[in-house]
Records
---
Amino acid sequence: MSHHSWRAFSHSVTRDNYHLITFPYNKLARKRRNLTTIQVAERANISRNTLYLLEKGNASTSIGALFNVLRVLGLQDDFLKLAADDELGRKLQDLGLLGNEYK
């Protein structure tokens, strides 16, 4: 992921929509794989408390922790899909690219 696309992605994930990305997605994926919180936390190199917060949708957890959990669950490619269709962002970018034509 390029620096520009990472920046656009990280701005599209807000405290308001973070819970949609994390819970119940991670918890269900973990349970489907019959993995315990201890196993996932150890493999993701995060604390059990961080995993608990992620699964609850707490926005204080880091994107890095989320990515590590997705990687452990074999879902790292889904990370790139989280902001793949940024319709509003494209419209704003297009308006900026048009410059003074609409001012």
---
Amino acid sequence: MSKTHTIKINDWFVDDILSGRKRIEVRENDHLYQTGDLIKFAPINARYQLQTLDGGIITSTDKLDGKVYKITFVESGYGLQNGYVAFGFEEVVEDAKSSAILNALESMAEVQKTGGSEW
């Protein structure tokens, strides 16, 4: 059964992850990473802040919010320090049909909670 790991990453890697240039991570294997596990990156050390038109603030660390990645392979040895692994990852992308079904189910559940008064 796959696990979901939330791991910290310096924010200077955020753009490379989003563009696909960075697809391998070397880590201490304290999480016992396995192929098929999911990753949520938690960027740290925001490099910049942008103010939105509505007065909100977006930082460089916000770009990965909601994104999930799947580990595609895990390797140890091969010159890595003992207790460390290298793993590959790819973004998990929901297909549009699944998203539409999920949104419809959530809407139906909300209608049931309110007794259908919106219909």
---
Amino acid sequence: MSSNATAKIGLLKIDTEGAELLVLRGAQRMLAQDRPAIMYEECEETYQLFGYTITSARAFLQQFGYTVHPIDNLGHYNNAIAVPEEQHVDFLTKGS
């Protein structure tokens, strides 16, 4: 690899107990340039402690061309993956 080459981030895992949107806001350049898939937790209760909602977090990701796919529902929170619209997501479909 040349000294001018840069690595591209393919996956971002966020688990910050409610501060996920703050992390995403700080990662805007990476989201636009690298277009990584993003695994994170959605929890209305902890999001509200930071002044936002699941709807506003999803809207932020949608502004960057991401589609959010809830992975499971564990009661008071969900695991989710956000994938750039241009990426294929067959691995998320259940059953075959």
